[in-house]
From TrEMBL:
Residues 22-199 form the MRH domain. Keywords: Autophagy, Cytoplasmic vesicle, Disulfide bond, Golgi apparatus, Membrane, Mitochondrion, Protein transport, Signal, Transmembrane, Transmembrane helix, Transport. The keyword Iron does not apply. One of its GO terms (cellular component) is phagophore assembly site membrane. Belongs to the ATG27 family. It comes from the Eukaryota. It is found in: Cytoplasmic vesicle membrane; Golgi apparatus membrane; Mitochondrion membrane; Preautophagosomal structure membrane. The chain crosses the membrane at residues 211-231. Residues 1-24 form the signal peptide. PROSITE patterns: MRH. This is Autophagy-related protein 27. One of its GO terms (biological process) is autophagy. The keyword Transit peptide does not apply.
Amino acid sequence: MRPTTSLSLSLLSTLLLLPISTLAAFTGEAEADGVKFDFTQLKTHSVVVEHKQDPTVLKSNYTINPTGKLEVIKDEKDQCPDGTQVCMISRLWRGDKPDDGAEKVIPFGSIESPKDLEPEYTIMRDEEKKVLGLNVTFHGPEYGDKKQSAIVKFLCDPELTGLEEPDKDGKGTNALKFISYEGEQVATLEWRTKYACEKVLETPAPSQGSWGFFTWFIVIAFLVVAAYLIFGSWFNYNKYGARGWDLLPHSDTLRDLPYLIKDFLRRAVNTFQGSGGRGGYSAI
């Protein structure tokens, strides 16, 4: 596990929390103030906290599903109610075996919360307005005479996906970390993940696609015609001393071209019109 430095703690203590809104249920997505968060790639995750109470050890398991309710295990009696999104289950262990029955089973939030218990979430920023992550507060029912809530701080960490957890020997990094359980009423957890980093929507660069066949055909045809006119004009000038229109190759044809086109169009019109009602004869 990576230790939390005093510098990071002081930084978080001076965060500027900008409220976004409340939700009927937190499903892992949020967007506001030009910032979009998407935690839907995360899955149910847990962190275990141990408190030694010789000769026993109290192990508290905090579990959260950032996209919906926790799975209900069939025939398991010690679990939070169906619909719970954040749950803590504490058990006493003697040696390597847990006691029968849990000491505490506390739900901190439900996806079916009434309006007064809807989760709240805020963007976390530092003093320079840089986005540090998303703060989500889940409100649960009372346990004993204390209303329970859980604060989950999704912190930006480009090096972690958020799915990391130690192996059975306790080696490795757990992306989810227990911070405190103040007054047996407010549990605070930190979840480090790259999905909590600010996403900047970049303007796509203009397309640099290659030219199509028709474009290349036009370009090549233009170059061929230009080369033909230039070479033909040079040839007529040097061999015949031509000037003006006579410089162009086939200048007679080019001069007659408007008349040829006009004659062609007239004949085409006459062909399509036919003789009308004149029995096949055209007017003279």
